[in-house]
Amino acid sequence: MSRENIFAKVQQALTAVPQKAEYPAYELEQLHSLPKLEGSDLWEIFARNFRGVNGKPMRSLAELIEFLQKSGHTCGYCDPALMSTVGEALRGAGLTVEDVYDRTQYDRYQFGVTRASGLIAESGSVILDDFLTSDRLAALSPWVHVAVAESATIHRTITDAIEKLGTAPNTTWCTGPSKTADVEGILIEGVHGPGEQIALCLR
Questions:
Q1: DSSP string, the chain
Q2: For the chain, which domains are there?
């Protein structure tokens, strides 16, 4: 197969599907985890379940700044669209923040701040997609990833989130920090991605 054909197939795979398949028929009450959905405040439900998978839910920049300073994570990247609301506040606290992610120096970034397209209360998951995540590597390679979301984008259930998937070519659901138990059943976090996953909901 020629080089051109290979790249053409890669490009085709990255293109959004023109028409999604119909969802199979299912009974919603059989799919939901009712204990995880207890409560009426979506943020509180999300925060409880997010903590359950070792995520860190936050509602203020002061809380984020305190965490980064205490943990010694002082150099990072911030999505340019978030610089005025998040990046400048971090800079004002004495942290080094860049709005261009230099992929040749990925190991220099201790934290990455990117936009999330949503949160899932039922599973405590953060949703990232190619439309809002300014740089996927900036969300995956730093030890600390801060996903910034709005309360209006919190989905109550997993099925609600599936129905609102949208047309982004790539969508990732992050349920807490990266983790694996492949080796002797020992759970290790931060192997394939961030060791600290933060969900910052400012409004």
A1: --HHHHHHHHHHHHSPPSSPPPPPP--GGGT--GGGG-SS-HHHHHHHHHHHTT-EEE--HHHHHHHHHHHT--EEEE-GGGIIIIIHHHHHTT-EEESS--GGGGGG-SEEEEE-SEEETTTTEEEEETTT-S-HHHHHSSSEEEEEE-GGGEESSHHHHHHT--S-S-EEEE-SS-EE-TTTT--EESSSS-SEEEEEE--
A2: 37-201 (3.40.50.10420)
